[in-house]
Prior knowledge:
Blueprint: H1 6-21, H2 31-63
Helix pairs in contact: 1-2
Amino acid sequence: MPLNTAPQMIGTLTDVCWDKCISSPGNYLSGKESSCLENCTKRFVETTQYIMQRAAHKAGEASAGGALFQ
Length: 70
């Protein structure tokens, strides 16, 4: 991942996972909230990595003369 996209990714991750997992902010996270944040973060990172790998693969195909979208 390019270094300049990390802050944007962290901001998006924070927005998405916070809204999904935290119903009412308090002084500490409940076990359910903590687990939800962990799972949400893991899925977000895995999905982002997959998308980036897929885009790189497609870009490689395009530069080798293949179609961009199949």
